[in-house]
Amino acid sequence: MSEYIEHDQVGKSVGLVEKKTFTFAQPPDEMILESGARLGPVTLAYETCGALNADQDNAILILHAFSGDAHVAGYHHADDPRPGWWDFMVGPDKGIDTDRYFVICVNILGSCNGSTGPASMNPATGKEYGLEFPMVTIADMVAAQKVLIDHLGVNKLHAVIGGSVGGMQALEWAVRYPEMVESAVLLATTTRHSAQAIAFNEVARQAICADPKWNQGDYYGTDRPDMGLAVARMIGHITYLSDESMRLKFGRRLQDRADFSFNFDAEFQVESYLRYQGRKFVERFDANAFLYITKASDYYDFERQHGNGSAVKAFSGTAARFLVVSFTSDWLYPTYQSRAMVKAMKKTGLDVSFCEVEARWGHDAFLLPSERLTALMKGFLGHVNGNG
Amino acid sequence: MSEYIEHDQVGKSVGLVEKKTFTFAQPPDEMILESGARLGPVTLAYETCGALNADQDNAILILHAFSGDAHVAGYHHADDPRPGWWDFMVGPDKGIDTDRYFVICVNILGSCNGSTGPASMNPATGKEYGLEFPMVTIADMVAAQKVLIDHLGVNKLHAVIGGSVGGMQALEWAVRYPEMVESAVLLATTTRHSAQAIAFNEVARQAICADPKWNQGDYYGTDRPDMGLAVARMIGHITYLSDESMRLKFGRRLQDRADFSFNFDAEFQVESYLRYQGRKFVERFDANAFLYITKASDYYDFERQHGNGSAVKAFSGTAARFLVVSFTSDWLYPTYQSRAMVKAMKKTGLDVSFCEVEARWGHDAFLLPSERLTALMKGFLGHVNGNG
Questions:
Q1: B363 an active-site residue?
Q2: Which alpha helices (DSSP H) does chain A contain, by range?
Q3: How far is CA B45 from the centre of its chain?
Q4: pLDDT of B9
Q5: Which end of chain B has less neighbouring CB within 10 Å, N or C?
Q6: Are B202 and A234 an interchain contact pair (Cβ–Cβ within 8 Å)?
Q7: Is A214 on the interface with B (CB under 8 A)?
Q8: What is the interface pTM, i.e. ipTM, of the complex?
């Protein structure tokens, strides 16, 4: 979920990509959300790479994780120092080959990277929504994406692909619009949060709400709850890594000193790293969006929503082909959860490929260049096409 | 470390126990701490159960975990609703048999439960220390305990016993005062924190320091940083449980409602539970003490301190018999860490018994009644006596 892991450029870039937006659900025709609340207008920020072919059967929808955005690959301008968050996977001849596929990536509803969320203007009041923003769910995010996909003239999705919270959306797509989804790739994800995953999210939310500057979500135009949001991010960050990756990356090494300071400065490297991650995050993310999106992910319960508690029943609502990938050191959404999902898919008679990738880097592994993952992706997408 | 897990009374109680204190290191004869700083006077709160025998060879020192206190067993008065934190283990005919052993438990230096810590009065200023309190280490805690043990006329400790941070102290006792320590019982502990353990402590500290009421540690007599401390405790609490225990205890069950509220109330049971744990904790613990004790545990590095980086070398400084117990679901101090410790002990030629106890309840397992643990303890202590 730490989308901005730094990595070297891998392979050829898609080059320049354009930031786009699409606005719909103009009042009085607002979106009716899962909670029953109404929301409109709704703007979605999105980007595309590659081109839709004449048969309109080469579109791939990529769904980003928690704090991600629509900028999945390429650069926004010639001097752009950093490519999109999945540039190693998306591009000419890459795992998701933009010479072959029309790739769409959308910033999720409720976020703060161009799409409508709690930091957006509430047309009813003329000021930012804050906590007036209605709760949005994974199903709402997907329903909004569907409007955009229709608008783009795409009737079939060759694949929906997502990791983490993006994987939940891919799952939701497969059962909500089964006629549109030929295949789905679910990376480092789960059908529903464990109590432990909810617990981490809740403590992170409490860290934000404990910051007096949060002010019940009404902080736009004044000081933002940076301290609370930084702590929330640090909590999340620990869950994205793993015991082993932290040992390899930091161990007990000290930062810029040979011995203990015997004070409360950041002196272990892991302390400096976390503080840095916290500071960096507040520059690019909104505290209320953090609250809404974590809550949406906690609420998500594929079995409950689509199968009355049964995953097998839930999966009977789709005929998509699936690729499920878990990572050995991911303890946020551990492999046993992917296995349970795959077992249910198989019971339903679905065509599913499952792979547990050896990885030391925890939950974040799906965001790191991996030949294995790239090969899996390429093989699966090609096979779906009938020429793999 | 959540010493106050509620459990039924198990077996006969030691009955009433008295709160005692011992004060030493009166200026100008302050304690010289590991950092080089001076601290005095030093008061230690302690309790004892059972009686020292004529041979003075039946004393057992119990070292509490992070937020614990000296009240290890029995009751303070006739109407006391709650026995000491390890009452199921310490009492007549229990795992640590008070008919046979003279049990001593001391609140650690730096804490807030009767012993000198950052909330104590600084004689130099006439107000609470706050951040003027010098950093204390595990070695300092043990050095202070040694003064008390001497004061009690005890020359030999039949056993030093501790879980978690208490286990670090037991380890420190065994090598710092090898002539006094016949045996040591190390429960759910480690020779040094992993990067992940440091990370969790650091985020918890950041949660406290992010609370404006913390005010650089200077909050005594005004509002306390309860919000920050509650978040810190919630973070800790997740690490004391396990994925499985949370699933069994809470799963995705909702609290007092049949369906989602679609707001930010605590609605999952695990959310209510964590908020409750946070609220309860601030009533009994000091935020600065949280900072100091977590830092002491992060600093602790048995290998570095006693073996120049080598555990084998470090253990060569003691001839104590050891019992090392880990718990399958403890992911804060996982079994692999205990195994590494045991391997080093064996290489040194020490007499060590190791047991990994099947337990679902994570790190907290050592604080929960367990026939297995009680039997292990009884067997080990009896055997040390030569009549087991």
A1: yes
A2: 138-151, 165-176, 195-209, 226-240, 243-249, 269-282, 287-299, 302-307, 311-315, 335-347, 371-385
A3: 14
A4: 58
A5: C
A6: yes
A7: no
A8: 0.94
